[in-house]
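Researcher: Please generate the 3D structure of the following complex. Treat every line as part of one assembly.
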Amino acid sequence: MMEDRIDDLFGYVEERCLWQFFSRTWDRQENIDGVLGQAERLLSGKEPVRETPMDKLFYADALVMVNDFRERFPWIREVEPEEVRELLDGLKARLVDVTITRSTNRELNHHLY
Amino acid sequence: MPMVLLECDKDIPERQKHIYLKAPNEDTREFLPIANAATIPGTLSERGCAFCGAKLVIGGVLKDTIQMIHGPLGCAYDTWHTKRYPTDNGHFNMKYVWSTDMKESHIVFGGEKRLEQSINEAFDEMPDIKRMIVYTTCPTALIGDDIKAVTKKVMRERPDVDIFTVECPGFAGVSQSKGHHVLNIGWINEKVDTLEKEITSEYTMNFIGDFNIQGDTQLLQTYWDRLGIQVIAHFTGNGTYDDLRCMQQAKLNVVNCARSSGYIANELKKRYGIPRLDIDSWGFNYMAEGIRKICAFFGIEERGEALIAEEYAKWKPKLDWYKERLKGTRMAIWTGGPRLWHWTKSVEDDLGVQVVAMSSKFGHEEDFEKVIARGQEGTYYIDDGNELEFFEIIEHVKPDVIFTGPRVGELVKKLHIPYVNGHAYHNGPYMGFEGFVNLARDMYNAVYNPIRHLAAIDIRDANPKAMPDRVREAA
Amino acid sequence: MSECNVAEVKPAEVKFAARERGGIINPMYDCQPAGAQYAGIGVKDCIPLVHGGQGCTMFVRLLFAQHFKENFDVASTSLHEDSAVFGGAKRVQEGVMVLARRYPNLRLIPIITTCSTEVIGDDIEGTINICNKALKAEFPDRQIYLAPVHTPSFKGSHVSGYAECMKSIVKTVATKKGEPTGKLNVLPGWVNPGDVVLLKRYLKEMGIDHHIFMDTEDFDSPMLPGKTIETHGRTTVEDIQDSANAIGTLSLARYESDSAAKYLKDEFEVPMHAVDTPYGIQNTDAMLRKLAEITGKPIPDSLVHERGIALDAMADLAHMFFANKKVAIFGHPDLVLGLATFCMELEMEPSLLLIGDDQGSKYKKDARIKALKETADFDMEIIHNADLWELEKRIKDGAKYDLIMGHSKGRYVAIDANIPMVRVGFPTFDRAGLYRKPTMGYQGAMELAEACANAMFAHMEYTRNKEWILNTW
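Model: Done. Output below.
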C-alpha cells in the first residue's frame, strides 16, 4: 500500500513540479530536500519554517503541493504523522533516482551554469 | 524500441536518438532524447543561430536600448521584423535595428574603427537614447575584433552612455540556445549590481524569461500591481536596460522561460542568495499555482486568493465555453523548447486538448525531462525535428492543429492542417487567465475554420465530401 | 497642399550622393546569401545549401514565408565552432549527401557561401569536385548539379547575391551548346509571381516562345484537395540547359540579371538584349519594341488596347491627384529607378530615391540615373548605399513627402510620420496578396497608379483633408 501511495505522489510531482528539474544535480537535490522537508512539516501538522529566503521558497512550493495532495489523494488525511516521513522518504528516493542518480541528462554535473 | 527511427531518416540513423515515442511504464531514465547537439547538415532543421538567441530573443526586447550589430547588414536585417514584442513606449525595439555594415575592407583591415564610428553615429542620431548592446557576428568574431575595447573607449568619451557587449557569433553552439547563455552570463558578470533603484514595496521580485510577446508582460504586470509586488526587472519583456542592472535588489526570482533565462536566475541565487521559483505562466491552473506560490513566499496568500477568485470569475466561463468545444482536439507543438512542457499539461487540463507530437528546436535534455514527465503516452517527443520528419509524424498522429512558426504554418496549410503561431501568437497575449482564453479562442477558430474543409472538397466529385457536422459557433 | 505664393523659379537640382554615415540604421536589403537563396528556390527540384551558420538560412526562409505566405526549402550546413577552426568542407559534403539521399528528385544544389565561410576560406570548388565523385559513386543514374555561389555577406546585398546565384546556376547547368531552340531567354530579375505571369502573358500574346528565369509563378500556390504541395520554382534543369541555345536573352534588370545574360553571350554567343526594367508606360513600350525587334513579331492589338486602358485610367488620376506630389521611393535599384520614371509619367515628383548596397561606381554609369538628372524639373536626391534612416531623418528634419513607395521594412516611417505608403518590391509582408499583383507592364503601371491613388484617398479620409473632393469624383 505504501508503494501505491508513493506512486500517487510521484505521479503528481512528476507531472506538475518544475523544482525537481532544475539545471544541476545540486540544485535538484537542494529543492527535493527543501520542498519535501517543508511538506513533511505541513503534512505532520507542524509549523513550516519560514526564516530564510530559501525556507520561504520551499514553503511556497510545498504548500501548493500539499494542498493538491490533500485534494487529489483523500487517503493522505488518514496518514499518521509517523508514516509521513516514510512516505516522503519513499517519494524522495524515487525523485532522486529519476532526476539525479539515473538521469541521463548530460548537463547535470557541469560545474558552471 | 521506443526511440523511433522514422522512414525518412533511414539514411541518417543517428536521428533515432532524438525522437521518442512515449509508452506505458517508461521514464526518462531509460529514454531521453539527445538534445542540444549539433544538427546534421542538409536536414532542413528549424534551428537558428546563437547570435539570434542573444539579440532577437533577449537583448532586442529592451525598449530603450540600441541594438548595434557588428557585422554585415544581413544579421541586422534578419533579426528585425520577426518578433511581436511591443513596448509601452511606442515599440522602439521593433522599429529599429543597427548594423556596422561591415564590408570587405573592414574584414581585411579590422572593423574596430567602423564599430566605433557606428556607435557614435547611433548615439548622435538618437540623442535621447543612452543605452546600447553591441553584438559580434560570425565574421567579426573570426577576424577577432575587440569590441569590448571599443565600447570602453566610447564610454570613456561619452560618460552618459552605457554599453553592454555580447560576443556570440552565429556559429557558436548548436542553436539559438548558446546565445541565451552568453547573454545571461555576460549580463550577470558585467551589469547586475551596477545600479540601484528606488524600492517601493516590501515585496520585490524579478520576472525572468518572459518577453512580452503580444503583451504577456504587460498583462501579468497588472497582477503584480494588484498584489502590491514591485517588479525590479523584467528579463526582458517591456524591460529597460537600467532595471536589469538592479536585479540584485529583488527578494525573489520568478522564472517562466527556464531555457532562455534560467542561467541568470541560477547565478542570482548563487551570488546574491535570491531564491529561484519556476512557474508556468500559460494556463489557468498553472497561473493560479504560480500566483499562489509567489504569494506564499511573501506571506500574502489572501491577496493571491482574492486575485485568483476575481480572475476565475471573469474568465473561467469563457475558458469553459472553449473547453467544451475543444475537448479531444489533437494538437502538435513545434516550437523552441519550453512551450512544449509549459503547454502540454495546461491545454490538457484546462481545455481537454490532447498533445500528440512535440518538437523542440533548441531545448536541452532538461527540457525533455520536463516534457516527457508531463506529456502523454503515445505522443512523439522530437529534438530538432526537420521537414521530412514533420511530414511523417503528421501522417502518424494526424493533428487537428499545430502550434508552430508561420513558415511551417504555411507548409502544413497545404495539408489542410490549421496552424496557430506558437512563437509570436495569433492574437495574444496568451499568458495569464485572459491570455489563455485568447489561446483557446485562436485554437478554436483554427480548428473550426471552414476553409480547411472546403480545401478537401474536389469540385469535380459527383459526391463531394460533406462539410463536418461540428460547425463554428459565435463565441 | 500647395501654397499660392508664386515661388521664385530656381533650376531643379538633382543630387547624387552616398550615405554619409558608416553604420546602418534600418537596412533596406538583406545580405548576399539571402538573394542567392531567392534565385535558388526559383528552380524546380532544387534545394539551395547555405554554407554558414543556421541563422543565415532560417531567417531567410522566414523572410520568404513572410512575403509569399508560403514555405520554401533551403538547407544549411549548420556551421559550428569546429568548422570555424578546422574548415567546413566536411559539412558541405555531408549536407550534399544527406540532401541527395533524402530527396530522391533533387537535381540541383546551389552551394551558397556566407561571410563566415568566406572568411574561413573553405574551398567550395574543390569540395564540389569531391562531392561530384561521391554522388556519382552512390547515385550513378542521377545527375545532381552542384553550383558554387560565392556570396560573402560583406559585399553587395541581397540584390547582388541574387545576380551571383543566377549566374552560377546558369554556368553550372548550361554547359554545352546544342541545337537552337528558337526560344527567348527572359530574365526579369527578382520579381513577384504577379510579374512573371504578366510577362508570360505578354510573350504569349506576341507569340514568342520563351523561358523565364526564374519562373516563380508557383510561389503563389494552391491548397488542393489532394494535399499536394506545388510551392516551388517552375524553371527546370532542362530549361536552364537550353538557355545556351536560345535565340537571345532579354535581361530586364541591370543589377539582378545582366550578369547571367552576359555570361550566356560570352560563353555561348547568345545575343544579349538589356532594357530598362519595364515599370511604367515608356519602359514597357521599350521592352515590347525590343521584343518585336529581336523576334520580328509585331506588337499585337491586345497590348495596344491594354496600353490604352492603362493610360485612360492613369489620366483620370494624374493631374487631378498626382501632379506635384512628392514621392520618396526605396528598394531594389532597378525597381526604384523604374518607379521614378513611372511617377514622372503620372506628374508626380519622385524627390527622394534610395538605392542600395555599395555599388556607387556602378550606379554612376547607369543611364537611367543620367536620364533622371537631365529630365527632372524638380529637386531630386538619389542616395546610394542608403539605409532607411536616410528617409526617416529627412522627414524628422522637415522634408515633406506626399507618398512613400517601398517595401514593408520601411512601414514605421510611414506610420509614424502619417504619410500614405504604397507597398511595392520585396518584402511586402504587411499587405495581403501583393506578390500576386503585377507591377510591370501596362497592367502593372495601372494597378500601381490606382494603388497610389487609393492610398492617398484613404489618407485624405483618415486625416479629413479635403476628403469631400471625392464626393463627386
